[in-house]
């Protein structure tokens, strides 16, 4: 264990107060105190959560599971929430959202993030291929509304697809650690058995805990899950007949989530469905819009011809580097002021009023010419 991680918490908090003082700020000008601290130890920071990679595992061929030990600035999380993880790749900072998958009651102070490396997942592929034990990454504090309520529900249904398993895995592990007595059904969708992250552990939990029922559904009919194919209402009616009585937590790819939401809507029980999406779901638009006009970045005095992509992509194509994180509308780190023009929200298809307003660059496309305060 390094000297930093063994520093007593009280000493580190005292050190933080000292370093956050006005005197330290003046002495650290113009680079900030953190720039000097990290020369001594990359984990030292006045306010930032920095975390050391303590373990790297590959539970499936296309995923990576990182065990991270955050510094004392970390304030903890609620199962289901996400954090923004920032890494430097070729000298440029990249941020993405991941949900801690570990139990709230893990005692060693580490958190576990699992990323599925998609073919076009620039950051997730970097995490899988390049991150090593001992590396240091930056985290945000945890956030998000998708969270296990403090008052645990009596009946829990967890539905996940693909890497959407991570936040519900945290819920499952937490409830089991707490000796939760209610019924838990864990319904998971994957293409093939070998693609299911945490497969062994979930099966082991279901074998050890009589109140946990595991239902695995594989899209490939050849694979041997308890169910087969994509999500269908029959899965619920036949295999989870009391689903309407359950508090349900759902996380997975957009088509699966839409199919699940439809059933809850038809049953009039959407207030019992809690959901988190880690892929951008776009609304169908059929208004014959074509990309036209310009995108003007007022502060930078840059301008590009609108190519129909998101404002975040167009800003980056213009050589700008606006703050961003999840790139799917959940973390709000890309929020900026639009000073003129209209934009369409990719998730809802709704076109903004055209007045001055805050917009999220990653989920907005310009409708005609727009001006942004970047
Ligand atoms: S980058 Fe997260 S909301 Fe836009």
Automatic annotation (TrEMBL):
**What Gene Ontology molecular-function terms does this entry list?**
2 iron, 2 sulfur cluster binding; metal ion binding; oxidoreductase activity
What keywords are annotated for this sequence in UniProt?
2Fe-2S, FAD, Flavoprotein, Iron, Iron-sulfur, Metal-binding, Oxidoreductase
The prosthetic group or cofactor this protein requires is: [2Fe-2S] cluster; FAD
Q: Which InterPro entries match?
A: 2Fe-2S_ferredoxin-like_sf, 2Fe-2S_ferredoxin-type, Beta-grasp_dom_sf, Cbr1-like_FAD-bd_dom, FAD-bd_FR_type, Flavoprot_Pyr_Nucl_cyt_Rdtase, FNR_nucleotide-bd, MRET
Q: Which residues form the FAD-binding FR-type domain?
A: 46-149
Question: What CDD domains does the database record attribute to this sequence?
Answer: fer2, FNR_iron_sulfur_binding_2
Entry's family note = In the N-terminal section; belongs to the FAD-binding oxidoreductase type 6 family.
The protein depicted here goes by the name 2Fe-2S iron-sulfur cluster binding domain-containing protein
């Amino acid at each position: 264990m390094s000297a930093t991680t063994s520093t007593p918490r009280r000493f580190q908090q005292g050190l933080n107060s000292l370093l956050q003082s006005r005197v330290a700020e003046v002495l650290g000008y113009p680079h900030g105190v953190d720039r000097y601290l990290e020369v001594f130890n990359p984990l030292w920071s006045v306010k930032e959560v920095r975390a050391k990679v303590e373990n790297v595992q590959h539970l499936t061929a296309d995923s990576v599971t990182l065990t991270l030990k955050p510094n004392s600035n970390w304030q903890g999380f609620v199962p289901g929430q996400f954090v923004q993880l920032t890494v430097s790749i070729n000298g440029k900072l990249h941020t993405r959202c991941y949900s801690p998958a570990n139990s709230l009651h893990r005692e060693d102070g580490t958190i576990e993030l699992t990323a599925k490396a998609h073919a076009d997942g620039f950051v997730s592929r970097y995490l899988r291929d390049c991150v090593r034990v001992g590396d240091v990454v930056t985290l945000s504090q945890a956030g998000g509304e998708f969270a296990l309520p403090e008052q645990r529900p009596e009946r829990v249904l967890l539905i996940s697809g693909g890497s959407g398993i991570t936040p519900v895995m945290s819920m499952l592990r937490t409830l089991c650690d707490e000796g939760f007595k209610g019924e838990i059904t864990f319904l998971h969708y994957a293409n093939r058995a070998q693609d299911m992250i945490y497969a062994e552990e979930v099966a082991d939990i279901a074998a050890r805990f009589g109140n946990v029922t595991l239902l695995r559904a594989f899209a490939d009919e050849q694979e041997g899950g308890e169910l087969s194919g994509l999500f269908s209402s029959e899965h619920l009616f036949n295999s989870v007949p009391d689903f309407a009585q359950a508090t349900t937590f759902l996380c997975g790819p957009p088509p699966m989530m839409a199919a699940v939401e439809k059933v809850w809507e038809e049953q009039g029980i959407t207030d019992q469905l809690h959901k988190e999406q880690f892929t951008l779901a776009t609304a169908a638009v059929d208004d014959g819009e074509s990309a036209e006009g310009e995108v003007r970045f007022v502060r930078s005095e840059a301008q590009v011809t609108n190519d129909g992509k998101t404002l975040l992509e167009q800003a980056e194509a213009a050589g700008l580097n606006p703050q961003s994180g999840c790139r799917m509308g959940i973390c709000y780190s890309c929020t900026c002021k639009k000073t003129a023009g209209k934009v369409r929200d990719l998730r809802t298809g709704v076109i903004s009023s055209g007045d001055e307003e805050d917009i999220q660059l990653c989920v907005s496309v310009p409708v005609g010419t727009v001006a942004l305060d970047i």
